[in-house]
Specification:
single chain; alpha/beta; Rossmann fold; two-stranded antiparallel sheet; 5 helices; 7 strands; 43% helix
């Protein structure tokens, strides 16, 4: 059974690129697969130290609340990530593998797990922590790839 939907969580690292290349190769062999390139951004929190003073919108120049100001920043960050992922997607046009781009906001591991379940993903190809030795082992205990591999029902290919 070929993998119909291959999810590649992307964070801009070399291992993310390696994971995407591997997913494209798997999808090319299967010929019926599509790849979903997913980046999860953590929202820029509203600092509690700011008072309820008004801020100036860098879009309109008008006064906005601090909540609106940070919403604008987060939305622009999300749009920039979508644009960046679409540029990455164009590198693979000749492979004729359909690639979908998605950006979510929140905790990376939790969002990847939830997305994989909602989209009925057949395989996740994800990069692992690059650290080696005991420090890498300790850091890896809390890594996104570990949490994802433990939290999903589908196979997970962890790239190193």
């Amino acid at each position: 059974m070929p993998f119909r939907k291959i999810l590649v969580p992307y964070d801009g690292s070399k291992l993310s690129d390696k994971s995407l290349n591997q997913a494209i190769e798997l999808a090319t062999v299967a010929r019926e697969s599509k790849v979903i390139l997913l980046q999860v951004m953590e929202e820029i929190p509203i600092p509690p130290t700011f008072s309820n003073q008004n801020f100036h919108s860098y879009k309109t120049g008008g006064k906005v609340s601090k909540t609106q100001f940070f919403k604008e920043i987060n939305k622009d960050k999300e749009l920039d990530l979508i644009e960046h992922l679409n540029k990455i997607k164009t590198r693979y046009v000749k492979k004729s593998t359909p690639i979908t781009v998605r950006v979510l906001v929140g905790n990376p591991a939790d969002n990847i797990i939830k997305f994989a379940e909602q989209e009925d993903v057949d395989l996740i190809v994800i990069g692992s922590a690059e650290e080696k030795g005991i420090s890498g082992f300790i850091k890896g205990l809390g890594s996104v790839s570990r949490k994802v591999s433990e939290g999903v029902a589908c196979p997970v290919l962890i790239m190193r």
